[in-house]
Amino acid sequence: MLDSCPTYVPIHEGIIFNMDTAPDDPTPYPHLVGKLLYLLCMHLDIAYVVNVVNRDMQALEVAHLQIVLSMFHYLRHYPSCGIYYIEREVNTLWGYINVNFAQDADDQCSTCAYILMLGSSPIS
Questions:
Q1: How many Cα atoms are found within 13 Å in the side-chain-facing hemisphere of 101?
Q2: pTM higher than the cut 0.90
């Protein structure tokens, strides 16, 4: 995996999961998702992808494993991205929100995500 090409986005738009393509050996998948859950504490940009691959742990497909491996390629390209708290910084509180209305192909549910920042560091 170290000699692989890096990925520049956490997940590509329009990925559709097909429930009839199960991987041959699903045993490494929970271990890899556990690693991504650990990395989620420092890399908030992978939160949506980790949520997608974690919620479908029981209905595993080949596409899920490809997404997990793609996440490690993405993290390899951005190793220094993470949360840093700077002491001498103007502490202005601000936030972002992202809403997706019924675009999930599985259950047609809407999703919402937000982040609150204090200065340049995320707090929630």
A1: 0
A2: no
